[in-house]
From TrEMBL:
The lineage of its organism: Bacteria, Bacillati, Actinomycetota, Actinomycetes, Streptosporangiales. Residues 15-120 form the DUF4440 domain. Signal peptide: none annotated. One of its GO terms (molecular function) is isomerase activity. This is Ketosteroid isomerase-like protein. InterPro entries: DUF4440, NTF2-like_dom_sf. It comes from Streptosporangium saharense. It holds the Pfam family DUF4440. SUPFAM superfamilies: NTF2-like (SSF54427). Keywords: Isomerase.
Length: 130
């Protein structure tokens, strides 16, 4: 596959992942994550080092009714590079809560090509100030 086609596939996967989040389709969202994904986000309780740790965090959050509700979630200002079976996507994630100002986060996703397509092996998101 060409680098351009790989970058387009990664970009489409990011869009699908955030569409899945908005529709509450966790299985579809998770289909974009490697089992050993590390997740570092400003709002998380420290780095989560596997999907199992991420799942435990989400179960606790969701059971307490704290799952975010958003009107929109989109990746903007993307830069995606591919080197063989490794890709890096950098973008600004715009989260639009109902009735509140949009929040912007700077995101870096590291991806690996697998038999199931491009999977995120590391996700780092930092909330930007106003």
């Amino acid at each position: 596959m060409s680098e351009t086609t790989d970058a387009e596939a990664i970009s489409a996967g990011i869009d699908d992942m955030y569409d899945a989040f908005l529709s509450g389709d966790r299985a579809r969202f998770d289909a974009h994550l490697h089992a050993e994904v590390t997740v570092w986000e400003t709002h998380l309780p420290g780095p989560l080092r596997t999907r199992a740790e991420l799942d435990a965090y989400r179960e606790e959050r969701d059971s307490s009714g704290a799952r975010p509700v958003l009107d929109g979630l989109s990746a903007r200002d993307r830069r995606i590079d591919v080197w063989g079976d490794t890709g890096v996507a950098r973008y600004v994630l715009v989260a639009e809560p109902p009735g509140a100002p949009a929040e912007h986060s700077r995101v870096t996703d590291v991806l690996r090509r697998t038999g199931d397509g491009w999977l995120i092996v590391h996700h780092h998101s930092e909330l930007l100030g106003p």
